[in-house]
Specification:
CATH class: Alpha Beta
Structural class: alpha/beta
CATH topology: Nucleotidyltransferase, domain 5
Number of domains: 1
Radius of gyration: 19 Å
Distance between the termini: 15 Å
Shape: globular
CATH architecture: 2-Layer Sandwich
Strand content: 25-35%
Strand order of the largest sheet: 3-2-1-4-5
Largest sheet: 5 strands, mixed
Length: about 130
C-alpha cells in the first residue's frame, strides 16, 4: 500500500505531513533561499563602466534557480518511497516541485492545489480531508 503525504510549500519553507493511523509525522524544511538577491558591491561606482562592476541579472537568476532546485531535491529526499502526494501552497513553488517530482519519479501520484498561508494544524487537517 502506498503511503500518503501532503506538502505545503512556498519558496521559503516546506511542511511535509506523512499520514499514518498511529500518528502523523510532520517535518519542516527551510530553504534559506533569498527571493530577490541583492547586488553585491552596490557602492558608489568609480569610473565609467558601471555595467562591468554589477553582476548580470541572468547570472543572479540562474543562482536563484539552482538554490531552489537544491531545496526541491531536499524536499523530495524527505518523502517516503511509494507515496500518494498532495502538494499545495500559495505561489509558484508547488508547480515547480511537481515538475521536479515528475523528473525524479514519474509514477508518483500528485495532486496540486492552491492554498494560502496555513498553520501546522491547518496543513494536517487539509491533508487528512484530502485523503479521506
Amino acid at each position: 500500500m502506498d503511503s500518503q503525504a501532503g506538502i505545503w510549500i512556498d519558496h521559503r519553507r516546506a511542511v511535509i505531513v506523512e499520514l499514518a493511523s498511529s500518528g502523523d509525522l510532520v517535518k519542516t524544511i527551510e530553504s534559506h533561499v533569498e527571493k530577490h538577491p541583492e547586488r553585491s558591491g552596490d557602492s558608489p561606482m568609480k569610473g565609467r563602466y558601471e555595467a562591468r562592476q554589477v553582476p548580470a541579472d541572468d547570472r543572479r537568476q540562474r543562482a536563484l534557480t539552482g538554490e531552489l532546485n537544491r531545496f526541491y531535491h531536499e524536499v523530495i529526499a524527505a518523502l517516503p518511497e511509494k507515496v500518494s502526494l498532495l502538494v499545495f501552497g500559495p505561489g509558484e513553488a508547488k508547480g515547480e516541485l511537481r515538475i521536479q517530482l515528475s523528473k525524479v519519479n514519474p509514477r508518483t501520484l500528485v495532486s496540486v492545489e492552491t492554498a494560502d498561508k496555513m498553520t501546522e494544524r491547518q496543513i494536517i487537517a487539509k491533508c487528512r480531508a484530502h485523503f479521506e
